Structures are given as structure tokens and as C-alpha cells.
């Protein structure tokens, strides 16, 4: 049997702490990915700064629950995602429902758009006092559905699929008591679809882990390339969504006298193809880096962070690079303009690899070290995980819980939003 152990005491019973729950498909056990980082940082914050319990439900290789004090880590056996070997996708929602029914969290935070949000919504039908919060972390109808649909079936079908997906998003996220986005653009997009109980939640970065102090001259030597110019670095999935192929195309257009090299840290569908395209070039593909300290060393030992991602929703990897005192060369789209304001790097048109190459050369020939110092100061001043979770638990969760309490009161009277609700059937 998957479930084990006794659930924590319910909130409200003699002042018991809350039971919080994170629910996501987007978890990699090696620690990569923005949501994986968020889960780890949230766990540390909740256990260090609050009295609450934290239940985190993620996909894994087998059904397993690990209880460590106030932290409950539930893995649900799930198949691997094709082309993304570090990720899995939960299909056995019945197991998730069993876990939720066992622990009955006060607040469920849904962190991805597919399947599991409706598992949370259906759980609330049985336990109406449950508060539902959603993180709208990717504008998925545009970034995922439209992009893939356009490439496979053409513009017309791509736009049709995008429209259907926005309809799904509206239907789904209006069911939540509160929704947070990672940018004002995403919040505005939800507002246009009548999803108005929203806030923007800036994420953070571990500025002690990601620091210019982690720079190690030996890292460049370990790459095995003979170069005297800048070392470019990218950290993320090596796939179509991240437009990783544009980075190789950009590198081929760099001036020869720049004498640059590049390291692309990550794994994904394009890995074999890009390795072939980069044959004979000073481009390293070390793969997925599971050790955060090693990732920090790689970033701090490089000179310029590069990304061609056009649909970035926040950009934790960009912040981590900036915390390591790197200027950024990217594209003027998505959240990138928010992460890279003037003076911290250069942004060019989406998919314009020639412009990106020119920006890399320009940054290097400018005072790139001074730009990096400003980038580090920008992160220190504006981004920290402590600020993130103070906002989440001190502002967004209370708003959601107030909404849930109002919904429960209205339900008792049989009225909600001016419409009489059907009365629940007797329990079986």
C-alpha cells in the first residue's frame, strides 16, 4: 500500500499549523529545472521559517512516501517523458487522489497545467474547505501548443490549437481560489481571459551558492579547448522549446578573432543533432548537471550567458548566471526584458542568430566585467527566495484562503455567485 504514517493534526485543531501541498509533473530528481529548484527552496523555507507541514507530490520511478519531520515527499510511479529523460508524467491520478485524501492539505498549490490541476479541483469537491492556488508558470497555449502545432501542422492549425488551449486554461484556472504568474505580461494574458484573482510572484536565487567567488580557472582547462576569448555558457534543456539550436547557429557566426568557446549544460531531444552540427567547433556538451555546486562553478567560470529562449516565463537560470556576475545576451521576448534591463546585457530579435553573435562580440569588447558586477548587484538587491516565500505565504495564500472561506460560507447557504448551487449528495 502506498500510503503510510499518520497525517499531521488538522489546522484549526488547537491552533495546529497548516498542511501545505505542492503538486506537479515538472520535477527532476537530480535537481534540475525551475520547478525542481522552487520545490527545494520552498521546502527549506517552510521547515526553517514556519511551523507548517509540507506535502510535495511529484512523479518518480516508483510509489514511495518519505516522511522527514514536517516534510512529506510523495513520489508517484510515472513513465518517462519521451525526449526528456530526467522528467516523468503522472497518469495514475487515483494514487494522487488517495494521497490528498489521506493528508487532506489545507492549501494545494498546483505547479503545472496538465492533468493534476483537475485532480486538485476534484479533491476539493470532496473536501470543500480546501484552498486551491495555481502557479501559471508558462503561457503554455502559446509556448507549447501553438509552437508545436505550427511546426507540425502549419499556422492555421497551430492557431486553432492555441485557441482551444486558451479555452482549457480559462476553464481550469478560474476554478482556483488564486493564481500567480511570474510576470505582468502573463498576468495580463490571464486577465484577457477573465481570470482576475491573480498576483505576480517574483522568484529568487541562492546568492551564496551562485556567486562569482565560485570561479575556477581549472574549469576552462577541463573543457579541452585552446581558446583565449570569452567562454559562453547556456544552462537548460537542449530542445526546441528552448531554441537551443539557435545557439550553435549563433556561435558559427561569431568573428574568428573573438576566439570564443561555448559550453551547453543540459540534456534534451536536440543533443545528438547539435553535437553533430558542432563537430570540430569548441562547443562542449557536458550533459545534465545534477550537482548545483558544480553548476555554480561552471557559470562563475564562464564569461557571458547566452539564451535564445523566446517564451521564458521567469528565467531562474538567467538570475543564477547574473548572480555569478555574468552579462546576458538573449532575445527581446517573454520575461527576458524583465530579467535583463538595460546595462546588464544585450537583447536582440527572436531567431536572429546574426544579431545575437554581434551582441556577444559587443559585450565582450565592452567592459563585460563591470556589466557582470552590476548584474550581481541587481540580483542581490531584487531577488531572494526569502522574499519570494514571504510574498507567497504572507500575501497570496491568505488571499486564496479568504476566497475559499467565502466560497465555503456561500456553499452552506446554497448560494454562490448569485446562483443556487446543487446540494451535495449524501456520502456513500
How does this model look, in words?
There is one protein chain. By secondary structure, the protein is of the alpha/beta class. It folds into 2 domains: 19-204 and 385-418, Rossmann fold (3-Layer(aba) Sandwich); 212-382, Glycogen Phosphorylase B (Rossmann fold). 42% of the residues lie in helices and 18% in strands. Helix 2 (93-103) crosses helix 3 (116-126). It is globular. Residues 9-14 and 415-428 have low confidence and may be disordered.
List the helices and strands and how they pair.
Elements: E1 19-23, H1 34-49, E2 53-60, E3 64-68, E4 71-77, E5 80-81, E6 84-88, H2 93-103, E7 107-110, H3 116-126, E8 131-136, H4 140-153, H5 155-173, E9 178-181, H6 184-191, E10 198-200, H7 217-223, E11 231-235, H8 244-251, E12 261-265, H9 271-277, E13 283-287, H10 292-300, E14 304-306, H11 316-323, E15 328-331, H12 336-339, E16 345-348, H13 353-365, H14 368-382, H15 385-413, E17 415-416, E18 419-420
Parallel strand pairs: 1-2, 1-7, 2-4, 7-8, 8-9, 9-10, 11-12, 11-14, 12-13, 14-15, 15-16
Antiparallel strand pairs: 3-4, 5-6, 17-18
Q: With helices defined by DSSP (H or I, 4 residues minimum), what is the helix count?
A: 15
CATH superfamily of the largest domain: Glycogen Phosphorylase B
Termini separation: 23 Å
The CATH topology of the largest domain is given as Rossmann fold
Number of domains: 2
Q: How much of the sequence is in beta strands? A: 15-25%
Widest sheet: strand ordering: 3-4-2-1-7-8-9-10
Structural class: alpha/beta
Largest sheet data: 8 strands, mixed
Shape: globular
